[in-house]
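so my prof wants the structure for this chain in the tokens format not the other one, which i didnt know existed until like an hour ago. anyway here's the sequence
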Amino acid sequence: MEEKLLKYLSTPILRVKDTIPVPHPYCITPKHLGGSMYLDAHAIKDAESHGAHCGIRGCKLSFDEHKSALLIECDFDGEVKDIPGLQDYLLSIKDMTNADGYVGFAFIRKKDNYE
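here's what i got, hopefully its the right format
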């Protein structure tokens, strides 16, 4: 888990496990690799200014339009809507989530052993 995710509150059945790209990961293409020896955000944006774009077929989003959501691990077997305390938990981390630039949440069951 990333260090910056450790600050998020955990409960006995809910915890921030990771992040997940939204709507999908930004995919690098050969056009991104021509101008720089390093591939960081600045190099990707520079490549975009020269015609490169996300390599996912049909994607027209820029690098900055690809976002991240928090992946919440749930130790609960029912439907997400039935998780006890979920609304209170999400409200308790809402301001921090917004400040960190996350655009939403995805959920995974602990028993599914996401790694």
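also thought this was worth mentioning. The beta strands are 14-22, 67-74, 105-109.
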